[in-house]
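Backbone-to-sequence.
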């Protein structure tokens, strides 16, 4: 039979959404059963473990609630996915990476924090220029924690009818309580604008007030992520309601080099003059650097060249800058 410590470890791993640890403890219990002569029980337990691992490979489980297709009113409000992206695939500043890794660490060990009346960071505000990795970070959080990623569809949320948007917002926060996941409010300034801003309409002010109330009252196990490019438009009251404000900036010279190197690893980038390239790419966002990399790679393939030249990469960078000029 399972020991008291093993039972506690099983419950702790489930609470922390750690599917690998859950399987590891279950295998220990099966091995102990086999050693003590309970061979039938050991075989049955191993069969169940094999079934669990098979489902994990198909990303159906892993401590998280499997995605149930949004139904009823939620169909038009939430877009569900199970991202595979991880933070190891991203190039972020050390400060931003530290913030995100702290979120992961606290969430994975939230049961230990609760034992001391402490709460894990769950309510995050991501601010910074377009294309700097805010949305991708939200998806990476879901990928790392094996949680469903649910994007709030603003076109379905915001309506012209008084009170209807607030009611839909309430439905989303109820979904957070019932289905654990990472919930993303992208382009958050659409509902988080300063309440006294010129030209604001009464309904948007009521929506923001409702959001502030729901956010403060939320005690679910879901992670709430709000992302915006326009931090200056946000109401001051919002910043007090979030557990952490994570700021994003355009990549530094070193980060630009890492982005290009990662993206062009298969295309012989060893002879590139990096100082020239990083100087030319200064001011581009992470997304624009990635698009320039892809353009240069395509040119290399189409021109039947074996490696990417500095000139071709500079040309791709200039094309990106031309799009925003």
């Amino acid at each position: 039979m399972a020991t008291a410590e093993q039972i506690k470890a099983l419950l702790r791993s489930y609470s922390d959404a750690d599917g690998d640890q859950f399987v590891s403890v279950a295998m220990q219990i099966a091995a102990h059963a086999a050693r003590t002569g309970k061979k039938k029980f050991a075989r049955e337990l191993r069969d169940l473990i094999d079934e669990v691992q098979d489902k994990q490979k198909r990303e159906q489980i892993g401590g998280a609630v499997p995605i149930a297709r949004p139904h009823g009113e939620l169909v038009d409000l939430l877009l569900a996915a199970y991202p595979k992206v991880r933070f190891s695939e991203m190039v972020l500043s050390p400060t931003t990476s530290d913030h995100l890794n702290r979120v992961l660490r606290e969430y994975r060990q939230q049961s230990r924090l609760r034992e001391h009346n402490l709460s894990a960071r769950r309510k995050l505000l991501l601010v910074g220029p377009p294309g700097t990795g805010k949305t991708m970070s939200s998806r990476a959080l879901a990928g790392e924690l094996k949680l469903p990623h649910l994007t709030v569809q603003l076109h379905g949320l915001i309506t012209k009818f008084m009170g209807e948007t607030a009611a839909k917002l309430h439905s989303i926060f109820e979904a957070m309580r019932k289905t654990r996941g990472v919930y993303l409010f992208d382009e958050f300034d659409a509902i988080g604008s300063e309440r006294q801003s010129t030209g604001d309409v009464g309904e948007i002010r009521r929506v923001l007030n409702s959001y502030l109330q729901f956010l403060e009252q939320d005690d679910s196990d879901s992670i709430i992520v709000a992302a915006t490019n326009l931090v200056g438009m946000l109401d001051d009251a919002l910043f007090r309601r979030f557990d952490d404000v994570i700021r994003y900036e355009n990549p530094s010279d070193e980060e630009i080099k890492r982005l290009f190197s990662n993206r062009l690893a298969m295309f012989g980038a060893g002879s590139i003059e990096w100082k020239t390239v990083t100087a030319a790419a200064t001011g581009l966002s992470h997304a624009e650097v990635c698009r320039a990399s892809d353009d240069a790679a395509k040119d290399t393939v189409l021109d039947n060249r074996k490696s990417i030249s500095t000139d071709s990469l500079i040309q791709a960078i200039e094309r990106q800058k031309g799009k925003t000029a």
